[in-house]
Each structure stands twice: as structure tokens, then as C-alpha cells.
Amino acid sequence: MNTIGTLLRLTLFGSSHGPGVGCVLDGVPAGLEIDEDDIQREVDLRRPAMSIGTPRAEADQVKVLAGVRDGFTTGAPVVVFIENRDTDSSKYERFRTVPRPGHADLTALNRYGETVDLRGGGQFSGRMTAPVVAAGAIAKVMLSTIGVQIAAYTQRLGRLVDEEERYLKEVRRASRENPVRAADPGLALEMVNEIMAAKEEGDSVGGAIRCLAVGLPMGVGEPFFDSLEGELAKMLFSIPGVKGVEFGSGFRSAEMRGSEHNDQFIVEDGEVRTITNHAGGILGGLSNGMPIDLRVAIKPTASISREQKSVDLERMEDTTIKVEGRHDPCIVPRAVIVVEAATALVLADMCLRGDFIAREHR
Ligand SMILES: Cc1cc2nc3c(=O)[nH]c(=O)nc-3n(C[C@H](O)[C@H](O)[C@H](O)COP(=O)(O)O)c2cc1C
């Protein structure tokens, strides 16, 4: 389905090479101050950077069609539309017969049949995340009313890993200043080279994004099944190319002893805090007042110009494929702002559900 959320409901529409992509965001309280330039700035962060070998794409122009009047939300659904421009569908027809390994061509054809729109990846394109970023910008405004802030950065790119502990403010500033959205400018240069090296070999590279959210009060989440982890994971796994989501020490928890993994409690400034944050800010499916700390693994881009094996579906025989056209040699930098937006949308929805954000402006 193309709708997610309970009280803050996001519906996506459109496809990569149709007239455009957009969203309807229902449940946004009335009276929120929205600067449309802020939404545009967030969407611009999703734009591919020339310096990492991605062909220039025209900037996406965000149009807010409804739900905001004179800079304030009206309480009606916020409708955002982003026109598709500069599309070249000619290279995609072939994928109906020879599907790209690692992409959704084969599964989509099987599921939806011949009328499926595979141009530009159709509904499976990373382009569908542009309206997610626009909606996320509004969710961030909702969260800011209760002091919640979110920032993400590229923590791993191929073999390069940022091992440093990082804080939200530095992440927010630094990651917006380099094309790979890294928190460390030195490492950013190495990451750029890693992407260029993969591209030169007709290949692609994956990585991991870490996202932090601070200021979330204790108790956000709706266990059993709508635990905060569960809701975040569902949203994050909806982002094309995401192959893993972990919270706090995640899979490393399996190697630890309880004495190591337990986040021991202390009183700090009159509040209960924990010394460490192996839980990633979530206990029992509820936020525990510590920063939400999550990581998302992104696979290397499927569409590569190196020759790979595929099948000719008409002849039902083996063949090979080289994918030409405009493809990112690495999705990770562009997905950073998408992960921030996805996290914001879930946290805003869960805050509405738990009455941490008022549903109506009074
Ligand atoms: C921002 C963004 C940009 C993407 N760009 C590309 C691309 O240029 N080429 C490509 O093959 N996949 C790209 N993807 C990933 C595919 O959409 C995705 O791998 C495909 O739909 C299959 O889904 P899955 O990887 O989740 O199984 C992108 C994803 C995102 C989030």
C-alpha cells in the first residue's frame, strides 16, 4: 500500500517518469508555521551531487497545493506536488525483456503484469522519496514544537567507517557541508574517492546512515505491535535500497554480556538518564528519553554499467546486461535526508498517538 501512519498519514502518488510525484499528508495540526523555502531546502539536499559522479539533474520544484495558507497549516491535508522534468524513458523499455539484477523490474512485472510502468524504475524509483522528504520537513516542524531535533549522516561508505561518537548539532552542520553527507570533512574526501573508484570500474558502492533524534520525551510508542522500533523499522525499510535497520548496538548486542549491554541509570539534572545508549533510546518499544540512535544499511546501487548476467524473458534464455543512463554510483548520500524525513514522520505520528503533540491547535 502507499499509505503509512496512524494519526499522521502519508500517502505517496506518482511515478518516476509520469507527470510528477507527490504526497498527501493528513493529520497535520492546524496553526503550524510552515516556511515553504525550508521544505524546498530539504528536498534540495536529496539532489545528486555532480562531484560524486552523478549526472546533473534539474532541481525539483516543490509545490504545496493545499493545506498551507499564508504560511500556516490549515488543518486540511497538506498536498505536495513535484513535477518530473528532463526524463528519458528510452533506456527502460529493455528491462521488460531483460530485467536488471538487483532492481525491481522482474518482481514488478510478475506481480503487476505488462501494464506496469517501469520507466525510470516507476513506482520503485528512489524518486518516490522526494515527496517523503517534503512531508518529513513538515513532520520536523511538528516535532520542533516539543523540542525534538533530528539529524543523520553517512557513517559508512563501502569500507570506510566513521567510528567517532557524534552529537546531533555537529552532525547537522557538518553533514550538510559535503556532497557525501559525512560528519567528518576528512573522511568525506575519502568517501568521494571511494564512490569515484567504484564508478570508474562501472560499479557501485553501498553504506550505512546513522540517524539521531534528541529531545523525545520518555514513553513514546504503542507496544505491543506498534512499538517505536517496529514503526520506525517499517518506515525505514520502505525506502528503496534499504537492507538493514538497527537500533543502538543492534546486531552487536548478540556478542555482548548483560553487564556490558545494560544502560545503567543515573540521575542527571533531576532526570533519570543512562550512562550508555546500547538500547538506542528505546526500551520495551517506548522511548526512554535518551537520543534515538538508529542505523540503516543501504545496498550498492543495482543499476551498474558493468556486464552482468540476466535473462531474456521472451526467449527464456540466459543473456547479459549493462545498464546505461543516469544512475547514482552510490545512493547513500542522497538517502541521508530521506532517513531523517522517514524518522521524523514516524516520531511525529507516534507523538500524536501518545498525546505528546496536540492534535488540534487551541
Ligand atoms: C534516493 C535514492 C536514489 C536511488 N537511485 C537509484 C539509481 O539511480 N539506480 C538504481 O538502480 N537504484 C536506485 N535506487 C534504489 C532502487 O530504487 C531500489 O534498489 C529498487 O527499487 C529495488 O528495491 P530494493 O532495493 O529496496 O529491493 C535509489 C534509491 C534511493 C533512496
Instruction: Provide the gyration radius in Å.
Output: 21 Å
- Strand arrangement across the biggest beta sheet: 1-2-3-7-4
Strand content: 15-25%
CATH class: Alpha Beta
- Provide the helix percentage: 25-40%
General form: globular
Q: Total helix count?
A: 8
**Ligand identities:** flavin mononucleotide
Largest sheet, described in full?
A: 5 strands, antiparallel
Distance between the termini: 33 Å
CATH architecture designation: 4-Layer Sandwich
Q: What oligomeric state do these chains adopt?
A: single chain
Helix and strand composition category: alpha+beta
Give the mean pLDDT.
95
General description of the model:
With 362 residues, the chain is an alpha+beta fold. The chain has one domain (3-353): Chorismate synthase, AroC fold. The chain contains 8 helices and 18 strands. The chain has helices at 36-44, 105-112, 129-144, 168-175, 185-200, 228-237, 258-261, 332-353, and strands spanning 3-4, 9-14, 20-26, 62-66, 68-69, 72-73, 78-83, 149-157, 160-161, 207-214, 242-247, 265-268, 271-274, 282-283, 286-287, 292-298, 308-312, 317-321. It has a 5-stranded antiparallel β-sheet, covered by helices on one side. The chain has a 5-stranded antiparallel β-sheet with strand order 9-8-10-16-11. It has a two-stranded antiparallel ribbon with strand order 5-6. Strand 1 and strand 2 (9-14) form a beta hairpin. Helix 3 (129-144) packs across helix 8 and helix 6 (228-237) packs antiparallel against helix 8 (332-353). The two termini are 33 Å apart. The relative contact order is 0.18. Bound molecules: flavin mononucleotide. Flavin mononucleotide binds at residues 103-104, 121, 124-126, 129, 239-241, 299, 301-303, 327-328, 331, 334-335, 338.
